[in-house]
Amino acid sequence: MESVPILKIGRTLLVSIQVDLQDHTALQLQEDLADRITSTGARGVLIDISGLEIVDSFIGRMLASIASISRVLDATTVVVGMRPAVAITMVELGLSLGGVRTALDVEKGLRLLDVEEDDAEHLLLDPDGTEAE
Amino acid sequence: MSGPQVGDPEAVPIAVDADVVRVRQAVRALAQTARLSLVDQTKFVTAASELARNTLVYGGGGEAVLTLVSDARRTGVRVRFSDDGPGIADLDLAMTDGYTSGNGLGLGLSGARRLVETFTIDTAPGAGTRIEITSWSR
Hints:
The complex is a heterodimer. Chain A is of the alpha/beta class.
């Protein structure tokens, strides 16, 4: 059975979807990502969908689920690389991907995750900016 | 029905998960042949994907029949989905955004209708469901 590879770079998991996803492959990816987030302690998940020619309601729901699952597991998901025609179609279909962070490409997505990570570290500092005990 | 068919109909069976992907790919190829714009191709293939999944999940399987069509000035693509499943008792309800009898998002039928130029549905309890969608080149 085909599956989508998950790469780990630093504290980010990178997924690049290059095949026309069958429904069960999409569900498998959701489970694999949840496992990898917990086993690696990853803080970010970057999903590149530039290879996807369509995002229908099933794939859209998978992206929203992955974002929710990773949030619960203390990681942030960013979806990048959506084609313009896919964006137009998704909105007309009625899918808004509410709650899913997006960026135009992998580079911008990684930068977004870096900013999130920096913000999280600042929370560990007290208001005077000194290290918390 | 709009326009005579110009190509031989191509039937794609829908019995397993992988067939939904096969329908998408066959519909994409025909929509390109019909010279739909990229956005219209994407909308049409997305609608076909929703309907193929419905045929599998709610209709218990069936088939998609793809045809290249043309009128005096345009070419188009038409796909007819049919199943011998339970049919739809309350069509108005089934066509409502957000309504689902399964565990989907309830966007399949209503969303697919928005993504294509013409959408016709013929269904009754116990009589299966037949849905035909068509979009044209500009």
